[in-house]
């Protein structure tokens, strides 16, 4: 099993399981700008759907449903979300593109948020419920992005820090979106929904940037790598001091 793991990812041999991380290792991992786009999407990717999910039960109560009805009506969004999680994970493996799989959340949320923004007090409670249920039944792409950060780290020591940093950014994003819906904007949260529409639009641009960012890095490395002779490549692999995703023979996932 050990041999199989190391053949699949040789970078896992550069640390053993009892070796600690030094302050310098942590600082070097934090300074790895090649992972910053993933941290950025970690910060903002849940913001378009976070507030509707957080305030789902309150929104249903404001529509006139009692406690029992509210609890029952919140079940479909969980079922839809679980189904979308499995489908998105499967899609990610099929297309082998983290960006294509994770941007689905923003494409899912944007038209629904636009519809939610247009609703008035006279809108049918069942129409409002249907839209909010679809928003809160969003495809949960967080696990895919965790794997994306791990894959682009390509180092045991970097993975340890990058996973922690990524989750810190996700938690920071949760603190931010918890304050987007405000009391003075209730019950339709017009101002809040306008903000969510803007964030979802920004996120789509951010994912596009991440795609071309990693594509450019790979293209630049391909150009250098292909300019070397076979002997130069072998000497590099044997003697290089580059580690993790700094290696010229490593390619980023996008």
From TrEMBL:
The chain crosses the membrane at residues 33-51, 71-92, 99-119, 125-142, 163-181, 196-217. Gene3D superfamilies: MFS general substrate transporter like domains (1.20.1250.20). Keywords: Membrane, Transmembrane, Transmembrane helix, Transport. It is found in: Membrane. It is a multi-pass membrane protein. GO terms for cellular component: membrane. InterPro entries: MFS_trans_sf. It comes from the Eukaryota. One of its GO terms (molecular function) is transmembrane transporter activity. PANTHER family: MAJOR FACILITATOR SUPERFAMILY (MFS) PROFILE DOMAIN-CONTAINING PROTEIN-RELATED (PTHR43791:SF65), PERMEASE-RELATED (PTHR43791). This is MFS general substrate transporter.
